[in-house]
């Protein structure tokens, strides 16, 4: 299905309609499942801390153009299913979200300083996987069909 920049892009995926996201010059469908944990897996994401982490993460994502499709905070880790524009890297999004939430939480909840003495609220690293409407086999089949005189050698 061809989508024009002026149209509302969508595609059929099974029985549901999949919506594409739009930038000024791009149409995309980049979905990522992101997970990260608190340092030492301390179960501190509860009550006011939990609400503040949620609020700051939403604020950061809105500022950088990331759409949160679904998010869940457990007591020691965060899951977010997000749409990230093509000009943003996953590592940049994670750096900004983890950095800002860590700084704000430690400033606003001084009791955490005893537990997180190195000014690190989150553990290093994160888990990331993509989600898309097209799998690798479909792409390979499309490329094979797209070029009728394929030599089998990549260029």
Protein architecture, described:
By secondary structure, this protein is α+β, with helices and mostly antiparallel strands. It has a domain at 29-131: Transposase IS200-like (Alpha-Beta Plaits, 2-Layer Sandwich), CATH 3.30.70.1290. The chain contains 3 helices and 8 strands, in the order βββββαββαβα. The chain has a 4-stranded antiparallel sheet, covered by helices on one side. The protein has a two-stranded antiparallel ribbon with strand order 1-2. Helix 1 (47-64) packs antiparallel against helix 2 (90-108). It is elongated. The two termini are 26 Å apart. Mean pLDDT is 83; it is low at 1-8.
Write a compact overview of the structure shown.
The chain has about 160 residues and is of the alpha+beta class. The chain contains three helices and eight strands, in the order βββββαββαβα. The strands form three sheets. Strands 6-7-5-8 form a four-stranded antiparallel sheet, with helices on one face.
Query: For the residues shown, what is the average pLDDT?
Result: 83
**Termini, distance in Å?**
26 Å
CATH topology of the domain at 29-131: Alpha-Beta Plaits
Name the structural class: alpha+beta
Radius of gyration: 20 Å
How many strands, which pairing sense, and closed or not: the largest β-sheet? Answer: 4 strands, antiparallel
Strand order of the largest sheet: 6-7-5-8
Topology as H/E string? EEEEEHEEHEH
Poorly predicted regions? 1-8
Label the overall shape: elongated
Percentage of residues in helical conformation: 25-40%
What is the level 1 CATH name of the domain at 29-131?
Alpha Beta
**CATH architecture label of the domain at 29-131:** 2-Layer Sandwich
Percent strand equals 15-25%
Total of helices:
3
CATH superfamily of the domain at 29-131: Transposase IS200-like
């Amino acid at each position: 299905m061809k989508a024009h920049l002026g149209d509302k892009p969508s595609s059929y995926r099974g029985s549901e309609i999949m919506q594409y996201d739009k930038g000024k010059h791009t149409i995309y469908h980049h979905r990522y499942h992101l997970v990260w944990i608190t340092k030492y897996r301390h179960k501190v994401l509860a009550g006011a801390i939990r609400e503040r982490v949620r609020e700051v993460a939403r604020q950061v994502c809105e500022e950088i153009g990331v759409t949160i499709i679904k998010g869940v905070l457990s007591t020691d880790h965060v899951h977010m299913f997000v749409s990230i524009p093509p000009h943003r890297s996953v590592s940049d999004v994670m750096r900004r979200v983890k950095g800002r939430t860590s700084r704000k939480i430690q400033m606003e909840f001084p009791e955490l300083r005893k537990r997180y003495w190195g000014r690190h609220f989150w553990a290093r690293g994160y888990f990331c996987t993509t989600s898309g409407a097209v799998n690798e086999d479909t792409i390979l089949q499309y490329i094979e069909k797209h070029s009728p005189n394929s030599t089998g050698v990549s260029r």
